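Recall the central idea of this unit: under ordinary conditions, the amino acid sequence of a chain determines the structure it adopts. In this exercise we apply that idea directly, starting from the sequence alone.
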Amino acid sequence: MKPHLPNEPIAPSQDASNQQISIEQAMQLANGHQQAGKLQEAEHLLRQILQQQPQHPFALHLLGIIAQQCNQPDLAIDLIKQAIQANSGIAFFYSNLGEISRQQGQLDESIQYAMCALELDPENPTVHSNLGITWFDKKDFEKAQACQLKALSLNPKLSTALNNLGGIHRGRKEYDQAIDYYQRAVEADPNNPEPVNNLGTTLNENDQTEESIAPLNKALALNPSSADAVCNMGLSLNTLERYDEAITLFDKALSMREAYATAYIGLAKALQEKNELSKAEAEIQKALSIEPDNIDALNGAGNIYSRMGHVTEAHGYYDRILSIDPENSQALLGKGHLEMEEGHLQRAEELFNQSLSLGDDKLSARFNLIQIKKTAEIDENVKALLAEHDKNETLSIRKRTSLNYALGKCFDDLKDHDRAFPYFLEGSQLKRSTLNYDATSNAAVFDQIIEIINPDFIEKLKGHSNSSDAPIFIVGVPRSGTTLTEQIIASHPDVFGAGELYDLMDVFQQSTQANTDSHFPSNLKALTPDTAKQWVDDYINRLTERAPQAKHITDKMPANFIAIGLIHALLPNAKIIHVKRNPVDTCLSCFTRLFHHGQEQTYDLKELGQYYLNYLKIMDHWRTILPDTAFLDVQYEDIVADNKHQAKRLIDFCGLEWDDACLDFHKTKRPIKTASVTQVRQPIYSSSVERWRHYEKHLGPLIRVLDGLV
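Accordingly, the structure predicted from this sequence is:
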């Protein structure tokens, strides 16, 4: 919230007879310069006045205001105190002294000065408004609100009071009321960038992100040099998943204000969503070095370390939040996710229920409760979700999307498939509306990989490989059984299950010397054997850092199937396991799942089918150009039907001695971060085989694309 510092033109009564202009004229001119931002010219005139009249109260006061504008608050306070000593009967001297004291954290002194101002001018709305800001800073929101309402009773169109009331309601997370006050503040003073900026920021916080863009653009137009406006636009773009644009804005905001925790938090979030986790970690630590107890920074750190698989560190950050704010819903949800990934499902459920009862994000809590266990009946949680769906249009697209997927799962659990599918369909359509996915471009990428990674390309890389046999790659289309396969292998005592790692594609995305295009696979055109060797050595270093003592480490990133040829060439001793599943079951399982990030091809049945055909095309390419021993094909349905035989086949392919723990994979205690997190905590089940039959009449667009595979 920004105060109003009134600087009415002053009219001293004494002339400067030995000057070309009078003191009165000099004061008027100095006021004009100050209001026009010509601070040096104003200061020069004021010091000339003070040479003539050292105790001139209005000159001392205005010089104090200029000192504050020049970031010299101590000097500003001293000068205005001198002005008050010279004339103690001017209300706005006290009011401005109070506001500058507030900005310095001297809240009790600020209140004292504001009360002095009100004794002199009890009907001054600006003084009441400024006093309200101080009460806000002291977290006495009732008194803060009373002061702002008093100011509005004296001047119903006082923009600062309207803006400050918006801030009070925003602090209480009463976003609708906050937005109303900010809109009124903008109407009262359309060219004041602060309420415009606050309006845009609050719309984003209220899940009205699309609507936030227009006011934020206006705020930037009104004040292009505002680091806050630049940063807040970045935060909205983050919400819209426009991460590259957001990163540009956060970098700009940080160039304008170096110690800017909010910008570092936003930058870390964008980098996290782009899977640049090491960079995200560095940025969030910068935020914490500036504001160690910033809740958003601590939550960001928890989320990043959770994604990195650093469970202990993630718990630590969430716990720090809860020590500051025991009812913080984001920390409760974050810890709940960690407990769920570690297999502590009861503890996770307790945390989600705690978030539901205490936190403000009840929809997220309900969504997680639905995900963690099967719905057995239409209980209070389901009824609450149905009630939310009835007022669907008032929710943001993001919340409506989550709501529909949650209800789809509820009725799928209840085996009411015809009731479940419309929710999945609506949720997928909402999610698809937020994405820029282009199926044609995706197909072109697959074709480019096939063109570039040919036998000659692989032959060129021979002799520049890494001999490590530590990696065990598990690849396939998402929801094809890769998590189950990894859990079986990672139950072996010689194997560390690292889960879905972004390291390989992060390395392969690096630009090559002769080609600055960092996008895979274009960068492969200029790849030299030496650069390829650097890439693969970098990958092995990253991988082994995760478990230095492990003989083998699984990398279960399903999409690595696009790079099987490159993996085989550069890591000839690594094991590659390709997991297959019934095509329609695989696609349906993708379609009925709301992924946290990525998998943009899964939110339209036709596009999903096209992606699956492209996947088959590239797998046929690998089978054509690579030896039969390059990778092992495993069928998910075979694992379900004959778990023991298939488990032994997997372990044998990995070159390991058999261990019975691989049959008790559901008892293995390790974090699991995929969409199958709860399923692999159970023994083998067959209910997912031929699941698509329940939805067959709804899957026409998919089945037509997959013609011949069904």
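The two ends are 61 Å apart (CA to CA).
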